[in-house]
Amino acid sequence: MQQAPASFIAPQGGIDRNDPRPLHRQVYEALLASIRDGKLPLRGKLPSERELVDLYNVSRITVRHAVRELIQQGVIHSQPGKGLYVAERGGGFELQVLKSFTSIAIASGRSPGHRLIEASIVHAPLEVSRPLFLAPGAEVVLLSRLRLLDNIPAVVQTDWIPAARVPGLLDLDWAVANRSLYAELRERYGIHPKRGQTTLSARLATEQEAAMLELPPPAAVLTVDQIAFDDRNRPVNLTALVHHPARYPLTLLQSESGDFTQY
User: Fold this and answer.
1) Distances in Å between the alpha carbon of 165 and those of 90, 100, 188, 190?
2) 76, β-bridge pairs
């Protein structure tokens, strides 16, 4: 397996010091573009850390930050003692509470997007306030979106986030097609989901769900209910997902040790 020449994947002028985006984000997007364009093929080896530092004229910390994000999204993986490789894409989508729809779609080589259904602050009903460790009726941010894969409806996703932890979250433009909730929580509020739990079930779609997911009624849907917690065991968000059963099949990754390689 040959390593891609650094000069081959380098976009000319890929890093702009006047760009408001952080440098690590620019490196991340440049590498992701090279993978999407096929300049870095599946199972292909990335240039070394030193080559990436020289290529983009940034620090090792910047490169590591960008690479870490690509690893977290499953786009690349590390083989200890060998280097970094572009990950193979499976037939389904990874069931992973700590990864966003956006990152899972990107790791699968698909283009994520969404259509906004609702973004508001509401008083949490008991079934929402209880798992979020909130008093009944406490304010939560409600964010409901129709998630798209290559512009095709795949999932109806509704999130509830304690409003006190995310002031100004609704000031963002949630009509933007590729805005990631977890990326905003990490970068704007310093909230990092560390563990979570998922409950799977199935039921008939409501009339509205069937219409949004382009399913002829009566239609069965897969439901996924998730809650994520931070490193202090505080609930981050409660998520309810309604999956199109054919457009968003789920894959559960397992290992005997439970270990996952980190960069």
Assistant:
1) 36, 19, 11, 10
2) 86
What does 24-49 look like in DSSP terms, one character per residue? Answer: HHHHHHHHHHHHHTTSS-TTPBPPPH
How far apart, in whole angstroms, are the C-alpha atoms of residue 99 and residue 57? Answer: 30
The string of pLDDT tens digits covering residues 159-180 is 999 999 999 999 999 988 778 8
pLDDT tens track for 34-91: 877 778 877 788 899 999 999 999 999 999 988 888 876 667 877 777 888 887 554 4
113 three-class SS: strand
205's enclosing H/E stretch is none
Q: Over the stretch 143-161, which tens digit does the pLDDT of each residue have? A: 999 988 878 888 999 999 9
Q: Is 135 left (phi over 0), alpha (psi -120 to 50) or beta?
A: beta
d(CA 106, CA 90): 12
Using the Cα atoms of residue 109, residue 71, residue 101 and residue 222 in order, give the sign of their dihedral. positive
Helix axes 49-56, 60-72, angle to 10 degrees: 110
Q: By three-state DSSP, how is residue 186 classified?
A: helix
